[in-house]
Specification:
This protein is α/β, with parallel strands linked by helices. Helix content is about 40%, strand content about 15%. The N and C termini lie far apart (about 45 Å).
């Protein structure tokens, strides 16, 4: 099924978690001069207009990144402040990059973030199967990056299944690298595909950093936990010492989630959350990612839950 379009959800709380971790991993890879290859299996359009009717219909950006940036300010350097407190420093690179797009009413998808942060010597491999999304992706990446000063990495765009692409093209010639796996999970098969694909890739690319984004859906809890447990079990059987971390941002209570079709959303935007949160599973995780990301997640959890209480009228 190829019905999912990320324009409805760009800039929501799940994007904030996913793209913060993505930025962190790329900055980690950039610390060494040797080139690397970055794979993105479910790329989407790459850039999203927050004034688009699809974004306005769901209001997810408004409740996510726009609400967050309404409450933070740059201190004039590369750091941001929330009220009287400093934001965890590891959020700053993500905030600095995304704020430039928000100021122009756009939100950068993962391919745009990747080409902004990768260096000229690196390689970016993108895959997208949806016919409209792949067309938008090609058009968006034909344009010069909005803010990048140095030359961009070499980019390949594949109109093919991301599951097939990552198995066919790993390990990369550079040896160093990472992959972001971000399916829609509209199909139950995505959970099993994630498990099987990651296990297959790890067998032949044992030093690649693998990032898997996944939704937190109350009615899919069994599938989610089975997927995570299976991936971790296979990874540990291949390398008992592999560094892993499972980072979860839960912005609503678990039982608040209700599966709601897009066409059933009301215009007042007081709809039950379609996700109560999301997670990022990282294999061959960079040193200290778990600790540093948890500090950022604690801040984001506190922020969004406070906003939820205010919007529901339960907090004076």
């Amino acid at each position: 099924m190829l019905s999912y379009q990320h324009a409805y959800h760009a800039g929501n709380h799940a994007d904030i978690l996913k793209h913060f971790v993505l930025s962190y991993v790329i900055e980690y890879l950039n610390k060494k001069p040797a080139p690397y290859t970055f794979f993105d299996t479910h790329s989407g359009s790459g850039l999203y207009d927050l004034t688009d009717s699809r974004s306005l219909k769901t209001g997810e950006a408004e409740k996510g990144i726009l609400t967050l940036f309404d409450s933070v300010n740059s201190d004039g350097s590369d750091s941001f402040l929330h009220k009287d407190n400093s934001i965890p420093q590891y959020l700053n690179p993500y905030f600095k990059l995304v704020k430039q797009y928000i100021d122009k009413n756009f939100y950068p998808g993962s391919p745009e973030i990747e080409r902004q942060l990768l260096r000229k010597s690196d390689f970016l491999v993108l895959s997208e199967l949806h016919p409209q999304e792949i067309e938008n992706l090609r058009l968006n990446l034909q344009k010069k990056p909005l803010f990048k000063k140095q030359d961009s990495a070499t980019v390949q765009i594949h109109n093919r299944s991301g599951w097939e692409m990552i198995q066919a093209l790993t390990p990369p010639k550079t040896k160093r690298g990472a992959v972001l796996i971000d399916p829609s999970y509209e199909e139950l098969s995505d959970y099993e595909n994630a498990h099987k694909t990651i296990s297959a890739v790890l067998k032949k690319w044992n030093n690649g950093i693998i990032m898997l984004w996944y939704p937190l859906l109350n009615y899919r809890s069994a599938q989610i936990e089975s997927m995570i447990d299976g991936i971790l079990s296979d990874a540990k059987s291949l390398n008992p010492n592999i560094e892993t971390c499972d980072i979860r941002l839960e912005v609503y209570e678990k039982d608040s989630h209700t599966e709601n079709l897009l066409e059933n959303l009301s215009q007042d935007k007081k709809n039950p959350p379609r996700l109560y949160g999301s997670g990022m599973l990282v294999l061959n995780a960079p040193w200290m990612l778990k600790e540093n990301a948890q500090e950022a997640v604690d801040f984001l959890t506190s922020f969004f839950r406070q906003k939820n209480r205010e919007s529901s009228g339960t907090d004076a």
